[in-house]
Amino acid sequence: MKRQIIASILVFTFILSGVVAFANKTSATEKYSTVASIDIKTLDAYYKKDTLMLPLRKIAEDVLEYELTWNGEEKSVEIYKGAQWTKITIDKNSYFFARVAPFELSKAPELTNSLTYVPMEFFSEVLKYNISLEGDTLIIKEPSQEIEKIIFNGFIKDIDENAKRVLVLGNGTNEHSNYIWLTKTEESEIVNTKGENIPFENLKIGTKVIVTMPEMVAMSYPAQGALVKIVVLEEESFEVGTKEIKNEENNVIINYPEVKGIKKQLTQDYLNQRIEKFANSIGENDLYKDLDLNYEITLIDDNKISFLFKGKFKIDGFEEEKYLVKSLNLDLNSTNEINFENYFKEDEASQEKLHEILDKAAKENGLEGFEAEGVFIYFWEGNVVVYYWPLDDSVEMPVELYIPIEEIEDIINDNFGEHPII
Questions:
Q1: What is the pLDDT of residue 206?
Q2: In this structure, are residues 213 and 230 in contact, taking their beta carbons and an 8 Å threshold?
């Protein structure tokens, strides 16, 4: 004989003279357990036309146990709990949740009697609780939907030691990729593939990682959120450090990368030789005066590494500064350079398709078509970025065309020569 036992445990905690009742209740007949029942008369809630405006701190902090931080200069509030993080700004009807683009609710957040108020649907549409009004009682139930767990492969692009955060860029190999600052919290998990804990201080720029996205992120660029989980791919990773070239005669400073920790020492040596040769070719060019050149890593995946260099310089006889943009892409298998000329197949059909794609992309960027004197590439997530200086002397920065690699897989090369032998 089957026996069915339905156990219900109801715990009431009264706050503000018995105003707020919390319930941790499990029932076979309820879909969501009740978190709180609140008499709205005690909240100083009010209606703005047809929208019920609720005090944010009294509910999010006192009831739902979020932490709130007020920024008086921005008139904004940061709201976070564990891996969840979002931000609102007074009088700005713009809200966001996870990777969803900013959206509007019925009303913007507003200040009333020095308290921040939000529309009732903020708690359902942003914080994802099941919220309803029954008479004068506000019913809040546990989150109303299962949050999709988003995981992507990428690499650590930068580290902020003081703020305990890392900048991670996706490598384009996953459907979900991202570019995001992740801040370490007490709940953050940083492990290797064996599940062993890794101290935050051991993370290095260039390290390959698998990232679990936070449920809430700031829709800035890069995005921002709490660090939920990072799996460090130790066996596949290497570090990228920085070296410097100075040419005091021309007042030139060039920061350039150095790879460290590659398992094959010969491969590491050849990569660094190519990088240093590239940097020296710029530093020894007498055209560049007062040059301050820095770089960023735009991609690290299993087969290649891509660097983008940017800076400003002067030319003798001209007062205005000029922009310098250069890139260096290296094949990790052969250590050879990947450029516009060898990345795409040379047969007539491939070249015809390539120029059709570039011409279309240029027109979508407001240009008449694809016309260039010199063409270069770098890689960003799942794109090859084709950049060039158009035939217009007044243009200060190059045109950049982002071409999804999945759209051109049939016209690109995957072999860039043999690895050098001692």
A1: 95
A2: no
Q: What's the pLDDT at 174?
A: 64
User: Could you count the other beta carbons within 10 Å of the beta carbon of residue 340?
Assistant: 18
Q: What is the pLDDT of residues 23-54, one digit of tens each?
A: 333 333 344 578 889 998 899 999 998 889 99
Contact between 38 and 18 under an 8 Å Cβ cutoff? The reply is no
* Consecutive H or E run containing 116: strand 115-119
Sheet strands (E) in 319-406 = 322-331, 375-380, 383-388, 399-404
What confidence score (pLDDT) does residue 219 get?
63
Q: What's the CA gap between 316 and 288, in Å, rounded?
A: 9
Binned at pLDDT 50, 70 and 90, residue 199 comes out as very high
C-alpha to C-alpha distance for 209 and 333, rounded to whole angstroms? 20
Domains of the chain (ranges plus CATH)?
A: 14-143 (3.30.457.10), 151-236 (2.40.50), 239-411 (3.30.565)
pLDDT 10s digits, 206-234: 999 999 888 777 667 888 888 999 999 98
Q: How many CA atoms lie within 13 A of 163 on its CB side?
A: 13
Total count of residues recorded for the chain:
422
- Is 407 in a helix, a strand, or coil? helix
Mean pLDDT (whole number) for 393-419: 90
**pLDDT of 317 above 50:** yes
Residue 4 has pLDDT above 60, yes or no: no
> Whole-model pTM above 0.90?
no
Instruction: Find, among 259, 196, 204, the residue nearest to 231 by Cα.
Output: 196
Contact 213, 227 (CB under 8 A): no
Strand-strand pairing, 383-388 and 375-380: antiparallel
Cβ atoms within 10 Å, residue 104 = 10
The answer for residues whose C-beta is within 8 angstroms of residue 89's C-beta and 6 or more apart is 74, 75, 76, 77, 109
pLDDT above 70 (res 175): no
Torsion sign, CA atoms 204, 205, 207, 210: positive
Do 381 and 388 meet the contact criterion of CB atoms below 8 Å apart?
no
Structure tokens given for 4 = 């069915």
Give the residue from 239, 245, 296, 298 showing the smallest Cα distance to 271: 239
Helix (H, G, I), strand (E, B) or coil at 212: strand
**Cβ–Cβ < 8 Å for 158, 145:** no
* Helix runs in 260-401, H state only: 265-283, 340-343, 348-364
Helix, strand and coil content of the chain, in percent to the nearest 5, comes to: 15, 40, 45
